[in-house]
Amino acid sequence: MKTLEKDLAQRREQHLYRERLVLESPQGVEIRVGDETLLSFCSNDYLGLANDPRVIAAFQQGAQRYGVGAGASHLVSGHSRAHHALEEELADFVGAGRALLFSTGYMANLGVMNALTDRYDVIFEDRLNHASLIDAARLTRAKVRRFPHADAGRLAEMLAQAHRPGLIATDAVFSMDGDIAPLAELCGLVEKHGAWLLADDAHGFGVLGKNGRGSFEHLGIPLAPPVILMGTLGKALGVFGAFVAGEAALIETLIQRARTYIYTTALPPAVAEAVRASLRIVREEGWRRERLQALVAQFRAGAQKLDFAPTSSLTPIQPLIFGKTQAALEASRRLRERGILVPAIRPPTVPEGSARLRITFSAAHEETHVDRLLEALAALCASRK
Questions:
Q1: Catalytic residue among 43, 80, 132, 175
Q2: Assembly state and interactors (predicted)?
Q3: I want to staple 208 with a disulfide (CB 3.0 to 4.6 A). Which of 70, 169, 218, 226 is the partner?
Q4: Is 349 marked as a binding-site residue?
């Protein structure tokens, strides 16, 4: 216990100690934390669906019909008609042969990598990949090599030297920087070298593309083998869970071999019903994506007039880099004093020396909310001079 206490104390001294907020309200652009009402710019509820009455009603109706738990894994007795319908609708939406539900994106990435690689393979990872992709590769018996961020040229050199390239793994939209992977170049490389491409589109699915199908639609790339798409259902769709989409043989292989699918209780069917309602909204209400893009453009135009230089990201993820951890924490504290919640993101979540405010937008935000954020950032700039 003394060792644990020493480690915790050290984390506090290094300004790396993590603490949880206890929300008293539903997810939304305005949330209650204790006695505070805060304007939130840190949620991944990009389309504002987490508290949508239609999604809530579908969840309630699903609970009335199916109960509140699945009871078993999909392969025992937990696979309901709601799960099956959602898988079919997700596959149709993204243009894949089939889709398979997982409890979380973390478990989906773990399941795919362990099912498709062995000790003779090499897995290639972007250096800024999400922790789930990094951990998934580490838990396989394959050799893992990491290439410089979004550097398809360097990856091509590494692939040429590999004895048996098994899989390339990348975020499609990088969660901390908001930039998009060079998916067209990566697709060319996997075809050339006979590897798989696992693209984690957690932050692009529902948000990017004319129809919200994600990063591949946004870039005009058809979703076809050997591409494996992983999408999550708790961000733009506002509910919970994840899915993997690809060719029919891939999905059947995952059903047979993905341990995080085989040995996990299925999502509650009511959750699947809520996701189905959310997916219908994503299909029908393209104005949400248009509004989101307009809010991002408004913020970027305003931020450029301040001392903060926006990154190249055009997605709802708009980081402001402070570098030092203390500086990012202080900026977060000052914003909260003005009623705005943007927690500081620190190492090891981001590389050393790149602590930041990770500002995210929702279609539920209003232009006045963005103005208020920019005013607070302007005050922050003035206080730093």
A1: 175
A2: Homodimer.
A3: 218
A4: yes
